[in-house]
């Protein structure tokens, strides 16, 4: 067993103001997306400008925050929401959903694409390789915060998380997700998109591989206590929400290589 590095989740405190590592990880994600977006824009043959990249990051940030919060309430706290709809604004209590954030970003990119008269999928194909930066940073934030841990296990790298009431040795599933959803997914998408691919393919690769990685990690991740397993003693909400991503992602890749259309300004 490995000792959990008990890091204070508050990175900086100035009087009554506290800056949490989780918030810093969001900033790292957006900053990383901006940096790589600018890099790709310079090599886009005029299809993307620095202004477009800045606006896409801004739209995306709004989509992540609003969609992530609304998605968490609807997907994971719906009965509590029915009893008290005001919990949706209690952001200080925590709670964000990747799948809700994804829907929020798609909605935001739809608005962005209309503003700049671009095809929606050309936009999502462009930004998809940067998304894993934020996903990986967010999982590190979960790990530092000692939340969203894995199931009990006896593997040699198991950890006991300080916030776990049962104090059991568990899978550090946040680090698994950091490695898969962050590092591996970034490498796959970055190298896949180095040369211009047909429309739909990069977005499809993102959906396909994120869905696969998330489904796999859910087998060793503790399900949300208020939901538990949905069926069969192993199916989780995260797996159920990720399965359509795998199906749609595979469909987009097939469609992309069949249609062989390419981004247009």
Secondary structure topology:
Layout (H helix, E strand, L loop, with lengths): L9 E5 L2 E4 H22 L7 H27 L1 H6 L14 H19 L3 H8 L3 H14 L14 E2 L8 E2 L2 H20 L8 H18 L18 H23 L6
Antiparallel strand pairs: 1-2, 3-4
Helix pairs in contact: 1-2, 1-6, 2-4, 5-8, 6-7, 7-8, 8-9
What does this molecule look like?
- The protein is mostly helical and about 260 residues long.
- The chain has helices at about 20-40, 50-75, 80-85, 100-115, 120-125, 130-145, 175-190, 200-220, 235-260; strands at about 10-15, 15-20, 160, 170.
- A two-stranded antiparallel sheet has the order 1-2. Strands 3-4 form a two-stranded antiparallel ribbon.
- Helix 1 (about 20-40) runs antiparallel to helix 2 (about 50-75), helix 5 packs across helix 8 (about 200-220) and helix 7 (about 175-190) runs antiparallel to helix 8.
Q: How large is the share of residues in beta strands?
A: under 5%
The count of DSSP E runs of length 2 or more, i.e. the number of strands, is: 4
- SSE order in H/E notation? EEHHHHHHEEHHH
Q: What level of helicity do the residues show?
A: 55-70%
What would you call the structural class?
mainly alpha
Return residue spans where pLDDT drops below 50 for at least 5 consecutive residues. none
Task: Give me the Rg, rounded.
Answer: 19 Å
Largest sheet: 2 strands, antiparallel
Overall residue-averaged pLDDT value = 92
Distance between the termini: 54 Å
Strand order of the largest sheet: 1-2
Total helices: the number is: 9
Q: Which term fits the overall shape?
A: globular
Key words describing this protein structure:
265 residues; mainly alpha; two-stranded antiparallel ribbon; two-stranded antiparallel sheet; 5% strand
């Amino acid at each position: 067993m490995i000792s959990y590095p008990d890091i204070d989740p508050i990175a900086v405190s100035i009087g009554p103001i506290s800056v949490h590592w989780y918030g810093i990880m969001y900033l790292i994600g957006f900053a990383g997306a901006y940096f790589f977006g600018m890099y790709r824009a310079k090599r886009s043959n005029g299809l993307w400008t620095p202004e477009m990249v800045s606006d896409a990051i801004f739209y995306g940030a709004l989509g992540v925050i609003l969609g992530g919060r609304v998605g968490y309430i609807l997907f994971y706290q719906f009965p509590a929401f029915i009893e008290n709809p005001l919990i949706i604004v209690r952001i200080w209590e925590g709670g964000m959903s990747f799948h809700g954030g994804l829907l929020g970003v798609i909605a935001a990119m739809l608005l962005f694409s209309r503003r700049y008269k671009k095809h929606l999928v050309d936009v999502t194909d462009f930004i998809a390789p940067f998304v894993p930066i934020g996903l990986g940073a967010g999982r590190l934030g979960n790990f530092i915060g000692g939340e969203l841990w894995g199931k009990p296990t006896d593997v040699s790298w198991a950890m006991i998380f300080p916030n776990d009431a049962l104090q059991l040795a568990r899978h550090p599933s946040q680090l698994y997700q950091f490695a898969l959803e962050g590092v591996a997914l970034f490498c796959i998408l970055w190298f896949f998109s180095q040369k211009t691919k047909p429309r739909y393919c990069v977005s499809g690769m993102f959906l396909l591989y994120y869905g696969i990685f998330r489904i796999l990690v859910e087998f060793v991740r503790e399900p949300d206590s208020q939901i538990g397993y949905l069926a069969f003693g192993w199916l989780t909400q995260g797996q159920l929400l990720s399965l359509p991503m795998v199906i749609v992602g595979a469909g987009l890749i097939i469609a992309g290589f069949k249609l062989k259309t390419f981004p247009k300004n």
